[in-house]
Every structure is written in structure tokens, then in C-alpha cells.
Amino acid sequence: MRDPTTPETTIASRDLLAALPAELVAGLFASARPVSLKADQQLFGTDEAGETCYRVESGLLKVSVISPSGGERILAVIGPGAIVGELSLIDGAPRSATVTALREAKLASVSRAMFQGYAEEYPELYRHLTAILARRLRETNAALTATSFLSVKGRVAEAVLSLAEAFGHDVGGGRTLVRQKVTQSDLAAMAGIARENVSRVLQDWMKRKIVSRISGYYCVENLAALKREAKS
What we know:
- This protein has helices at 22-28, 86-91, 112-121, 124-149, 152-167, 184-191, 195-207, 223-230, and strands at residues 33-37, 42-44, 52-66, 72-78, 83-84, 98-111, 168-172, 175-178, 211-214, 217-220.
- It is of the alpha+beta class and 232 residues long.
- Strands 1, 2, 3, 4, 5 and 6 form a six-stranded antiparallel sheet that branches.
- Helix 5 crosses helix 6, helix 5 crosses helix 8 and helix 6 (184-191) crosses helix 7.
């Protein structure tokens, strides 16, 4: 098996704007300004004015919301190739979530003026955005259903499966290594449950050889079993 600490060039992002045609993305970010973030540094916060959007060049970011009591819910974990912050450029409204670096990250930044100028020159950008935002809405509906009806174990399973889909690497034997380091606290924030519950679920799965931990990375040992857990 390959060393999980080596760079992985085929990491995918769940961010749906990564599905934009490559030529549109390249043109939009042709004159982008570089931005660097340290681990735990915030890129922008909820309700801030949105004047820029960003493409993730390297590193890992989380998109989250904070409850009035201070609890965090992670809406998405995004990696290289993802675009974030575009909603405020489209509708002019403040940021709808907070984006923070989970680890050191490098991004490319495009201003509102650059975005709008490019969209005027290439109006097909909006056609792609419409389809992408519709798919996002469907994902949001699915996530709401999961939060409302799934058990604690099912919520954790959905969180791990989403990470495996976005950042998974087949290491043979039906095993999928999640090529990004996430903590139990991150999984808890994704699932909307307490970290202690995540710990108990993971311990059970490790005993049953459904999930393992390799050098700080989660590995799905039995994908079929994990999918069954997501429905429990």
C-alpha cells in the first residue's frame, strides 16, 4: 500500500463548482491574486460582505455555521479544485457560512468585478451555475433528511462516506483510504452530534473491521458494511 503521507494528485472535491468546464475555470482565474492561509485561519465569516471568490489550489478548508450557543456544524469539507465564496458574487448578499482552513492552504482570489466582467463575456457561465446550484439544493435536501431521520451511527456513516467519496483513494482489497486528515471533532461537526458519540461509533467499527486508522488517516475497510450502517 502507498504511504498515505505522499501527495495525491487525484484528490476530488465535493464542491459542485469543480464541475465547471475546465476552460471556464481557467479563464475566470487567469488573473487571480494568490492568497495563503495558515491552519485554523478564517478565510471569511458568516454575514461578512462578499466581494471575492476563491479556488483552492492546495490544502483543506471547512465550510461551517455556528449556532447561537456556539456549536459548530460543518456543511462541507473542500480540497484542491473547489471554488468557494461564489454565492455572494452571484446574488450580492452577505456570506452565508464561515470558511476556515483545516490545514495550511493556498488559494486563488477573484474579485466581484473580475467575476462579473468574465460572466458578461462568457454568459454560458451562468447556465452552468444554474445547473450546479440546483444540484446543491438537492444535496441540501438530502442532508436535511439525514439529520432529521438517521440514527447517530447513520449520521457518522454518512459523514465518513462523504469524505471517502471526495477524498478517497482505492488501496486495493476493496479498501478506501481518505487522503485527508480529519479529527473526531470534525466528524462530529459534520454529523451534528457530540464528539463522544463519534468516538464510540468509531471504536465499534474498528472492532468490526469496518473502518481503521492508518497514520492518522481513516480507511474504509468494508464499504458495503459502512453503507449498511448509514441506513441503520
